[in-house]
Please model this.
Amino acid sequence: MNVFDFAMEKEEESRKFYEKLAAAARTNELKTIFNLLAESEREHHEHLAALKAGTDSRRAESVVLERARDELGKIVGEAVPETILAEDQDGYGHAIKAEEESIRLYEELAEKEQNVSAAGILKRIAEEEKHHLEVMENIYEFVESPRTYLAWGEFGNLKEY
Model:
């Protein structure tokens, strides 16, 4: 199985899942967060497609991915969006957990991969996922920041933007 195809499939499933969460969200703020996360997944999918186009397909072939394919559903989440939002009011914890699980999976696959080139690509995708996690954290922080400001004189914990 091609490493990029696997990663792009994961990104597409994640995008669809965030769109379902956006549709199930009860507030405009949550809809905004999940729509931004879905858009971020779409952009990440396009980035992976560009990387795939610039890589010899033989270098990206993996045998361990076929066995790991079942874990894809576990990461993206098989739970119903309404259930997730009932348990995690803003759904953010679920999104972060899914991203962290993705990183863990790619790092483990890279360690098990026998094809050195494919292992390198898996490590690179893990790094991309770390960057994507940072983007997700920034999106959430940006959307939440209007509700978390200081209205009085102690400004010692302000972050630089």
